[in-house]
Amino acid sequence: MSLKLSGKPCPDDWLKTSSSCYYFSTDSKNWTDALEACKAFDSKLVEISDIDEDNIMRTKARNVYSNYWIGLTDQRDEGVWIWSGSNTRLTSEMYTNWSPGQPDDARGRGEDCASLEKRYSFRWNDEECYMKLRYVCEINLPKS
Ligand SMILES: [Ca+2]
Ligand SMILES: [Ca+2]
After folding, report:
1. Share of the chain above pLDDT 90, in %
2. Ligand in closest contact with the CA of 129
3. What is the CATH number of the domain that holds 52?
4. Is residue 8 part of a domain?
5. What's the domain range around 120?
6. 103 C-alpha to center of ligand 1: Å?
């Protein structure tokens, strides 16, 4: 399925801000399936680039009281975090909001996909990618 915007800034039922449209899923998927679901909407798993965007995500997650996948992964190269949608490597100059002690690649098998984690006040956590969580898709709007 491919949503066509047909002149509208955002698909119906997506949250619109000045820079993006967001879809907060009500279903739960593993990280890879969540990525594919966003692609099917011609969107990406959300890429959080500043505190304002992070606050929008955390407020929604807090209200629903659910974890959400975001677009960060270190599946390819352990410890190298990539925003999957734009294939951008996360650098120390870029905005992050990891919970203290995260990412910890915990649980033996490793944790390679990032989520907003309710146990950590919806700050970022690395989690096992096969876990089924809700997810946030994003469409960047053209800069006006
Ligand atoms: Ca990892
Ligand atoms: Ca973790």
Report:
1. 88
2. 1
3. 3.10.100.10
4. no
5. 17-140
6. 7
Structure tokens at 89: 């490597």
Number of domains in the chain: 1
Amino acid symbol at 49: S
Residue 112 lies in a domain: yes
Least Cα distance to 135 among 49, 72, 42, 50 occurs for: 72
| Residue 1 pLDDT > 70 | no
- Averaged over 91-111, what is the pLDDT? 93
Neighbours of ion ligand 2 (CB under 5 A): 102, 104, 106, 111, 125-126
Distance 8 CA to ligand 2 centre (A): 38
Which position has the token pair 């950590």?
120
Residue 130 has pLDDT above 90, yes or no: yes
Q: 101: CA distance to ligand 2 center in Å?
A: 8
